Amino acid sequence: MKFTFKPSPNYRQPQSTQKIMLELTLGLLVVFGFSVVYYAMAYGASYAVRALLLMAVSLICGVGTEAVWCLALKKNIKDHMQSSFPWVTAIILTLMCRIDISFYALGVSTIMAIFFGKLVFGGFGQNLFNPAAVGRAIIFASFTGSVAADLITSATPTAAIAGHSWLLAIPNSISTVCATSSSCSSALVAAPTLLELILGTYAGAMGETSLLVIVLVGAYLAIREVIDWRVPVTYMGTLFVLATVYGLMFGQPLTYGLYHLALGGAAFGAVFMMTDPVTNPTSAAGRIVFAMGCAILTLMIRVKANLPEGVLYSILLMNMMSPAIEKLMDGNQIKTEKRNWKIVGIVAVVGVVATVLCALANM
Amino acid sequence: MNRKENFIAGFVKENPVFGLYLGLCSALAISTTLDNAIGMGLCVTLILTASNMIISAIRKITPDEIRIPVYIVVIASLVSAVEMLMAAFMPQLYANLGVFISLIVVNCIILGRAEAFASKNGILDSALDGIGMGLGYTFSLLLISFVREFLATASWTITNPFNNQVILHVGLSFLEPFKISMFSTSTGAFLTFACFAALFAVLKNKPAKKEKKEAK
C-alpha cells in the first residue's frame, strides 16, 4: 500500500479566496471602465465624473458599513475586510444602476444590501442571497423615482420593450402587437439595433449594456477559474433557446434570442452574480440546474410579469432554491450522473412547457 | 410573581410581539401608520381584557375537554361586538384595518393568554394581565409604525378616529425627497420588526448574561 503525504487540495491550490476576489474585482473594473469611457465619449465628461462619483459613494458606504459593524462587534477591521470583500458588492450594485440614480438612493441601498443582505446572516460565506441583488431589489422597491432630473431621463430600452411583452425588440419585424398598438413607434425608436446592443453603445444600466465586454471579461475569468464557466454558458444557452421558442411562436426572426441575451442584465447577471460561489450550489450538476432555473424564471418574468427586468428577481428566487437543489443533487457526482441528467432533462422540459404556456397566454 | 410585576411583564420581558413572537400577522400588516397602530392596539387590549375576565370567571365550570371551543365562542362574540361598534362609530379606521379586526378572533395573544393565564387565575389578576399584555402589544405596534410611517412618508400623523380630524401632524418636508417607500410594504415591516426583535432580545438577555458571569 502506498501512502501519500501532501497537504489537502485546498492548501495545495495556488488560488486563495483573496486572489479570486481580487481578479473578480479587476474584471468588474474593466466593465466599469468601458462604461465610463462610453459616457465620456457619448455624453461628455460630466457624465463620466458622475459615474465615478457614484462608484465612490457606493464603495464608501459599503466599506463604511462593514467598518461600523466591526467596531460594534469589537472585531479587527483589517482582518475582517480581508475576508469579507464589501467592495465587490458595492461595485456590482453600482454597475447594475442607471447613471441617473441619485447618490442618496445608491448609498442607502448599498448600506442596506451589506447589512441586511450579508452581515446579518453572518458575513461573507453565510449569506443566503446575493447582497448586490438584494441592494438592486431595494432600489426597485423604494427609489424608482429617486433620479437626478438633469440627466437623460428617457426610459431604457428594457423598460420600453417590457411594455410590449418583449416583442418590439426587433425594429425590422412587424409583430402582431405592433400592428395594433399606437404607442409602438416610440418603442421602436427607443430600441437599439442588435449591433448597438452587443457593443453596448446605448443608455442603460451602467455595467450591463455591453454584451461584448462582459463576455470577454467572463471568458477570461472562466479561463482563470475565478468563475465556473458552466453557470453563464448554461444560463445564456437556456435563455437563448427558450427565447427562440417564444419568438418563433410569434413569428419573430431567429436573431430574436440574441436580443434577450443582449438586453438588460442577462449577461452581467450570468457572469458576475449567478457565479457567486456563496449563493449557488456547490456541485457542478447543481449549478447547471441553478442556471437553468434562473433562465426559465428570467424569461417568464420578462414576458409575463409587470416588471422591466427579470434577471435580478430570477437570481434572488433561485438563491432561495440553492439549498434545495444542493439536497436534490446530493451524493457521489460520478455515481449519480444518470439521475442528475434526468433532473436536468426534467427542468428543461418544464422550461419549454412554461415558455409555450406564456406565449399562448400572451397571444 | 406579584401583581405589579405581572402587569409590567408585558412590555419588555414577555412583550407579546418582540418577546414571544405572538400576533405577528396583524402586527406586520397594519403597522403602516400610527393611526392604525393605536386603533388596532386599543381594540386588542379591550378584547383581551374582556375575554380574560370572562374566561377567568367561567374557568371552574368549563369542562377541560371543550375549553378551546368555549374560549373561541367567548372571543368571537367580543370581536363581533367590537367590529360592529367600530363600523358604526369609526368607519375610516374600520376601513383601514379591514379584515384584521375580524382576525383578532384567531390572534394568538388572546387565545394564548386565555389558555396560559386566565384559565388558572382570578378575575382581577386576569384583567390586569389582559391590560398589561394589551398595552405591551400596543406599545410594540407603536414602535414599528413610528419607524415605518416616518421612513415611508417623512411625517407622522395622528387623527381622531371618531371624526377624522387631524390631531397632530409632524412633517419634515425637507426630508421628503429622501423617504424610502419600501417601508410601507411588507418588506419594510419585516425589516423593522427584525431590528426591534433583535434589540429586545439584547435587552432581555442582558440580566441573564450578567448573572452567568457572576456565577462563574
**Gyration radius from CA atoms of chain B, angstroms:** 19 Å
| N-to-C CA distance of chain B | 27 Å
Tell the overall outline of chain B: globular
What is the CA–CA distance across the termini of chain A?
Answer: 68 Å
Reported for the largest beta sheet of chain B, the result is:
2 strands, antiparallel
The DSSP helix count of chain A reads 18
In short:
The complex is a heterodimer of chains A (363) and B (216). Chain A has 363 residues and is an all-alpha fold. Helices cover 66% and strands 0% of the residues of chain A.
Please describe what this structure looks like:
The complex is a heterodimer of chains A (about 375) and B (about 220). With about 375 residues, chain A is mainly alpha-helical. Chain A folds into 2 domains: about 15-140, no CATH class; about 155-200 and about 210-360, no CATH class. Chain A is built from 18 helices and no strands. The longest helix of chain A is centred in the N-terminal third of the chain and has 29 residues, at about 45-75. In chain A, about 45% of the residues are buried. Residues about 150-155 and about 170-190 of chain A have low confidence and may be disordered. By secondary structure, chain B is mainly alpha-helical. Chain B has one domain (about 5-210). Chain B contains 9 helices and 2 strands; from the N terminus they run H-H-H-H-H-H-H-H-E-E-H. Chain B has helices spanning about 5-10, 25-30, 35-55, 65-90, 90-95, 100, 110-120, 125-155, 185-215; strands at about 155-160, 165-170. The interface of A and B includes residues 104, 120, 138 and 141 of A.
